[in-house]
Amino acid sequence: MSMIKTVGIVGTGVIGASWTGLFLARGLRVVVSDPASGSGQKLDKYLKTIWPDLKKIGLAPGASLDNYQFVGASLKDHYSKVDFVQEVSLTVSIF
After folding, report:
1. Tell me, what's the pLDDT at 71?
2. How far is residue 4's CA from residue 1's CA, in Å, rounded to a whole number?
3. Has domain 6-87 been given CATH number 3.40.50.2300?
4. Which end of the chain is more exposed for a tag (fewer CB within 10 A), N or C?
5. Where do the structural domains in the chain lie, given as residue ranges?
6. What distance in Å separates the CA atoms of residue 26 and residue 31, rounded to the nearest whole number?
7. Average pLDDT in the 19-26 region?
8. At what angle do helices 14-25 and 39-57 cross, to 10 degrees?
9. How do residues 47-77 score in pLDDT, each as one tens digit?
């Protein structure tokens, strides 16, 4: 059995939101942060969109969209709740 029960996600763009969906589908709890305006609502919409496909692939016992918490701009007050942090970073190149 995995020692990781709760994952922290930093960033809710396509990659961070996809990681969130994957971890939820595997039955984990997820704590998510992103400073962008409206990111919590966008994450919720995205997860509801991909959940039917994750169900088709197969969900682990305990998998649920209810197992995530959006905590706003930072995980800093929530580190004690997580066993692992998946940070999503974006590199921008300017030509």
Report:
1. 98
2. 9
3. no
4. C
5. 6-87
6. 14
7. 97
8. 50
9. 999 999 999 999 999 999 999 999 999 999 9
